[in-house]
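Course exercise 7: structure representation. Students receive a sequence record and must write out the corresponding structure in token form. The form below is the worked example handed out in class, using Ceramide synthase 2 (385 residues). Read each field label carefully; the graders check that inputs and outputs are placed in the correct fields and that the protein name is recorded exactly as given.

STUDENT ID: A-19
EXERCISE PROTEIN: Ceramide synthase 2
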Amino acid sequence: MLSELSEWFWQERLWFPEGLGWADLEDRDGRVYAKARDLWVALPIALVFLIIRQIFERTVATPLASLLGVKETVRLKVPHNPTLESYYCNITKNPTQSSIASLCKQTGHSERQVQRWFRRRRNQDRPSLLKKFREASWRFTFYLLAFIAGLAALIDKPWLYDLKEMWQGFPVLTLLPSQYWYYMIELGFYGSLLFSVASDVKRKDFKEQIVHHVATILLISFSWCVNYIRAGTLIMLVHDSSDYLLESAKMFNYAGWRNACNYIFIVFAAIFIVTRLVIFPFWIIYCTWVYPVTIYEPFFGYYFFNGLLMILQCLHIFWAVLIIRIAVRFLTNNEKVDDERSDKDETDESEEEEEEKVEDKKDIKKNGPVLNGHTVHNNNHSKTE
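STUDENT ANSWER:
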């Protein structure tokens, strides 16, 4: 059964133009070609990345965060309340007014105490600035090094300057060592991102990020199997060209360096728009969608490859709308840059904490100090009373 499925899946008419097939990619005369089995190397590389990341965050990112003034956030723990905890975990983190009234009857607490409990419980679950900084610094380091390595690997290649060269001699394109490692490292890194997604900070565009990672892994894997390697290296280079700027802007944002964050974000927005909305669709996709049909008849692999590119382009447009909205708001009103793609609930956190501080001050003036959502009455009278 499995052998029949494998035979059907790898049939040549699906993945190659008519008259070409897997036999054309057999090593001969000292020429080496990409093979599907090579992709297994990406799995141990992904695991190595997970280990390196843990070491990096502890030995590099944490001292860097301290140097830039990013400190571990100490959040107050809410008093244990089985009723409220069960509602928070199983129903919703943001109860309605009618639900709050019902919870007040069940717990015997006032409406304000229940609201404060949920607010502090939400804050308790939010990732600290240090965790966000560590993740951003890890991604910044990889994207920057990947962009430099990719540029070094492609700087002397003719298809970097004339995109039609990517199909010269296709599919009999010799695999270079630089291309091999560029592919395996990129694939391993995106695999590690997919493995760690459950423990990473949840972002507003969490679902879009999952789609992006899966589409990227499929795109890299497929382009490797059918020797679309020249096109694949160009696509990876374009994507790496702006991502490190976004991560550096986040790092400065978490460190409180507002001006540096704002201006780096504007540079990132400009590069993102040029690379993702101009170069990627009008140069690269043009040379993978329009130009190849002048050489050979379309086939399933041709549609599959370009379909993945269109998924990425749709994500680019989605993110570009958010980025342009932020950039226009900053340039026209000189408002601070808050990345709408950033961590989930991050923009609400400061508002809730500020609201909580205001309420605490009111309670202190009225009833005395507040501890973990409960008023601590001060029965000691001052000497002047």
